Amino acid sequence: MLLDIIQVLLFGLTIGAIYALVAVGLNLIFGVMNVLNVAHGDIAMLGAYLTYWFLVLFNVNPLISLLLIIAIFIPLGAAIYILLIRKIIHISSSVEEIIFSSLIIFFGLSIFIESSALLAWKADFRSIIYFEGMINLGGILLSEKTFIALLVALIGVFSFEVFLTRTYIGKAIRAISQNRVAAILMGIPVDRINTLSFGIGISLAGVGGVLLALIYPIYPALGVTWTMRGLTVCILGGLGSFTGALTGAFVMGIVESFGSYFIGTAWRDVISYLMLLLVLVLKPSGMFGKGV
Amino acid sequence: MKSSIYSWILALGCIVLLVAIIPFSSGYIQTFIFNTLMFLIFAASWNIFSGYSGYVSLGHVTFFGVGAYVAAFLITKAGLAPPISIIIGGLAASALAASIGGVVLRLRGAYFSIATFGLNEVFKTIAVNMQKAEGTLGIVVPPIPSRALSCYIALIIALITVLTTFFMERSRIGYALISIRADEKVAEGLGINTFKYKLIAYAIGSFFPGLLGGLFAWHAAYIDPHSVFTPFYSFYSMIFSIFGGVGTVLGPVIGTTILSIFQELLWARLSYLYLLIYGAAVAVIILYMPKGLLGAVKYVSSTLLSKKVR
Amino acid sequence: MILEVKDAIKKFGGILALNKMSISMDSAEILGLVGPNGAGKTTLINCISGYYKLDSGVIRFMNRSITNLPAHVISRLGIARTYQIPRPNPDITVLDNVMIGALFSQDQRNIRDAYVVAEGLVKLVGLSTKRESLAKNLTLVEKKFLDLARALSTNPKLLMIDELIAGLNPVEAEQAINLIKKIRYDYDLAIIFIEHVMSAVMRLSDRVIVMHEGKKIAEGAPTDIIRDEKVVEVYLGRGYTHA
Lengths: 292, 310, 243
Prior knowledge:
heterotrimer; B: 79% helix
């Protein structure tokens, strides 16, 4: 029984770490430019499918794909920022308008990505067959996939934390999230940081998608599910707070893992949605957040 | 834009025309009319709340699915006549909207949108689990006697939706919603109980897709979770409304009519291709033509008008 | 007793905007509220109108507590305010803007009556010629008067005006001052008005309260206030207090 619990806990931590990657990216985008990226999960899904494609077509190791995806998604994110978000910010006269317009536009983007995926890959489930071993950690059996996903996710989260606290760009990002006007006055090149931030946020989602694809079978509709997970985590932890996104992600991962173990996976989505509603009723600003 | 008597005559003419040709049209035309009316109900009902208040509902299709399932259950399990089942389905959808709204409409708009975004997935999951418990993939419903009847009922629902928008726009609810859209806190300062009006409008707007769901179940004779909880319908609701012009009575009507014909004419067999185009198009519309077609027309005509005055 | 604020405290993060602020109004007077920028004047109005909630303290209006009541209830009870930067609904006409305030006021008017009231108020503030113009096409000054008309349309007993005169040229300022006088007498309103233009404060106020760093530092007749040592120090610095 104890071994089971530890296994479930480890799995929960893995999922939590992956959610942390996705959520932190979402949070980053919202904190820096007030855009709620409802296509975030779809972008993760894109990362997942690309990994699958690279594996099936060119036999590329998913971990290499991961690096490729980062390399693709950062400029892709920058492009989306320049084409769409900059214009939204330009034509909006208030934060509410930015949120309104970006919600609709990114919903459109979500639909765009999902229909592209359906056209390209159809609606069937795809699985990534790689890392098919098992690891024995003193009696606890962990699949190789989960172990690698956990490691990569933790490395990713840790590096991002370091990036945020130790580098100039990271500090600039935090400054902008706290007070955009002050940041501008301090000479921070907000537009350039925005562009970079969106690219980073997107690639975090992409990486999250790659890791999730290692563990779960994927299909296009997962995009929406992952977006909701990411949003729930962010709201749970508090929109705008990085610590919050992290904490929320691990809470979510562990709750989900234990929930699946005891109740089964069928009600997973419902449970996480109820968690969202609960947070909105009790403390909408989440655990650490400054709220919308 | 206060409509002149001419637009009323035009509208009446179109309706009479439709009523007349439906029973004599081929199956293909009837299906086209039904689909168009479906889109119209989706768009116009989404517009009632989201178009006027500025609160973006991203899960509009949820009410369609809930209405479909409630009606299907009532028809197959309780033996109720379809028309009654459909109406109860609509009421169930409204009740759901009121419950969710009761929780989420007290908060800022972004939270509302997020909550509606996930709502559809939740009910899809519930439906899937229900089907699993029943051991079936979907629900088979005794079909509607004729496609023409589907069209007529759809036409009636569409008319009621548009008329509701018309009367709501001119009522306290309408004025409250546009004030909320402009600046919610200022609206509160003017004595508007924003929560109450948002809730009422949201519940009203959800009734019509609920009705439509029940009608769809009767028309298609078979529903399953994936066909009625399709996020793409939420998106259609939004884009057809936005294209024609949100916050207006005729915007959704015009937007739906044009885009539905456009889709039919192009006739790509892959519906996903439309969605690709629409997904990209919505960005263009919001960024360059945020008031939609009606807004563009108004802008053009007012600029022309000001030139005439000289 | 019309209004009583006792020991109001309002914090924004680390900033103490209202530091045990108290005021009271017992009659339909014009109360001038002055003080350097950042003194907390607008915050006080925001708290009274329910736009913000107090962290602690009590607000009573017409002998009932309104602390922490929702803003729309407070509006229905008879408190109205204008905004430092006017915020009408830009996409509808002047008349519609004013009419909305009337529609949801304490009288619960129907639409036709609300328009009648709106017509009257639009005429009162001098915007009759612009009644069908969209609010976004107005000049800043016109928007300020629109804001005022809209505040009046809710049929208030207490009107709080946030910097109406600042930014007006002398002719407009004169019109505004006369308008406020007229409103006060025609509607028997209590008025709190925040203003930086001292001449307007002197002419209009029955009483003046001076705020600084969230506290009241002086209170009294206009002529006494300008001589008050603390007030002079706060505006001009210690070197001038011997004037």
